[in-house]
Specification:
With about 120 residues, the protein is mainly beta. Helices cover about 0% and strands about 60% of the residues. It has strands spanning about 5, 10, 20-25, 30-40, 45-50, 55-60, 65-70, 75-80, 90-100, 105-110, 115. Strands 2, 4, 5, 6, 9, 10 and 11 form a seven-stranded mixed sheet that branches. Strands 1-3-8-7 form a four-stranded antiparallel sheet, with no helix packed on it. Strand 4 and strand 5 (about 45-50) form a beta hairpin.
Amino acid sequence: QVQLVESGGGLVQPGGSLRLSCAASGSIFSINSMGWYRQAPGKQRELVAIIRGGVTNYADSVKGRFTISRDNARNTVYMQMNSLKPEDTAVYYCNADIMPRSMARGSYWGQGTQVTVSS
């Protein structure tokens, strides 16, 4: 069974920083991509950043402020969020495209972590 566990959310003032982490565990053969999505109240879930084979992509709204990285040995993805704005407030979800050892390849989600940017 595969699990994604996130950490690092919280309350921060505008202009502040947070670092999110997401660790994948379980019977994993390989991980293709890992990424972060977010969902603000009343809005659809949107892609924030994704990393695949060392190549990164970002939503236009976070380019230059957020940095996604990955530790393949630990099956962990990170997102450093700087210069946070109130509009970054949302529940952030980790997502990974995983090939388990004894199951079909699938898309897995973490439980979500709240990020609130407010003075």
